[in-house]
Amino acid sequence: MSATLDIERLSEFFGSCPVCSIPGKIFPIKERFHNLIGPRDKDNSAYVTETIKITLQTHLNEPAGDILVFLTGQSEIEKACDVLYHKAEKIDYRHDVYDSSVEGLLILPLYGSMPTDQQKRIFLPPPKGIRKCVIATNIAATSVTIEGIRSEAIQRAGRAGRTSSGKCHRIYSEEFWEKCMPDHMIPEIKRTSLTSVVLTLKCLEVNDVIRFPYLDPPEERFILEALRKLYQCSAIDRVGNVTDLGRFIIEFPLTPNLACALIKATSLGCEDLLLPVAAMLSVEHVFIQSGVTQKQKDFENSHKTLSEMVGGDNDFATLSSIFEQCKSSDNPISWCRKHAVHWRAVKSAFSVEKQLRDITHKLKQLKNFPLESHDTSKNELLRRCLCAGFFSNVARRSIGRSFCTMDGNGSVVHIHPSSALFGQETNLEWILFHSVLVTSKIYVRTVCPIRYEWVKDLLPKLHDVDAYELSSVAREEITKEELAKWESREQTKQNSEAHEASLKKMQKRNDDKSISDARERFLHRKQQKLQNISAQQ
């Protein structure tokens, strides 16, 4: 099933069920720990230099055979390839190598965003006398076995013994292995958004998503955060029940935010505007990047030209334009290469768009699917539909070129340099973004300008509910009458407040303390109710 699966944990979850193991063929592997990285060097990036040294030593001192090197990402890989290439050029193969049959080194990078034709080069046998060196991300640990060559680390070592005996060099020390490397990777459910998971459970009539027996239970605060986000996009109501919109959303293989925007467009009869955007946002690595400075500048100029074709002020429109231009091209592969766009990503988007179109067509046939009319321009309509799904990703300009998010956290963010709007910040008041990238600053990516009036009625929904109220636990502790009175008070309160007053409450945080406080309030309310019943008896 998986080379990295925690078998004991899975067996225990299913009542200590028996385990059937099928061993794979593997040749002997000699493993060696190097003392180049220890526990104190955990955050040190010098390991790339050490990796290059070991690679060269292996090339010079080992018999013929290929080398597979693991690094963490595209930038590291391309820089390592450049350094290794220049060092390999200086080798005198008449005197410097242990094996006289080795006459050269073929260096090949491998990472997920590479064009397919370049990735295929790693499978081609090298010329006679040439040693192949593949420098890869973990794509080579899980997806391929290249001829010649604690869970993740063990799996990577296994690559060295698939087709013949091999050696595995670990640049870290044995102490680092014991103290700094966990036995297994953190489960995905504990490190990604739970909105789709929680909505799926709700649609399966699993109401108590907090006490549900997960294989790897996520923290309660993350479940409550997912409930809050689902309420914000109206996928669930105030007591946590799935709405019609929530059942429409679950039909799409998209995040709830993106599905909500697409449903809004379908309701307005303009789904053709959103379908290409939704498809392009669902795939990775649309734009080709390079770790080589000059190449990257050329790529960025190509990307800038693409954005200028649609006005240069809307990254979502740029994605839609790429989709349409590539689709209408006589030679889409050549078009992508010319504009520094990944053909494989756009090709996947074509498939996703067709799937989404079929779903929207099916939903429009339902009697309870809402249909609306509009009288606005396509440019405005696209952004309004995006606001329907991504109003939690809205930010207002703050000081200088920075913006302040309106999600209650009040985070200071900056437009990412890859955006068409980078450099235009002083001309913007409100923006909507698709994703966040945290480096030395917090950057927002895929951005477009919006108007406050498009989101002013939606923003208060980010702050008018305690996340704990949406859980089934809370629902057990209050009566319908109490809930109705509470909703009435809340509605009166909202109607009496101006929209600007609502914005002032945006600093409120839905953190661990607020969740704990909410729990205490409900338990106190329940205790009072029980005391009243006892007094009446």
TrEMBL record:
Residues 55-246 form the Helicase C-terminal domain. Residues 485-518 are annotated as: Disordered. It holds the Pfam family HA2_C. GO terms for molecular function: 3'-5' RNA helicase activity; RNA binding. This is Helicase C-terminal domain-containing protein. It comes from Engystomops pustulosus.
